[in-house]
Amino acid sequence: MTAADGAPVKGPVSYFPSIEKKYGQPIEHWIELIRTSDLAKHMDLVNWLKAEHGLGHGHANALVAHTLKQQ
0.85 exceeded by the pTM? Predict the structure, then answer.
C-alpha cells in the first residue's frame, strides 16, 4: 500500500486493507461503530471490538488509534 506520493503507508492506516478483507466491512463501518460507542478510552474500545466484534488486537488497536486521532 502506498500513499499518493508513492511512499509506503505507515501507521494504523497500513492495516486497513487487511481489516476490510478479513472482516468484510469497509473501514467506515468500524469507524462509525467506534464513534457511536458509549466507550471513550482507547483500551476499552479495543477490548470491546475484540470481544463483541471478533477483531484481533492489532486490527482493533489500529482502528481505535486512527478514529480517536481524527476526533
Answer: yes
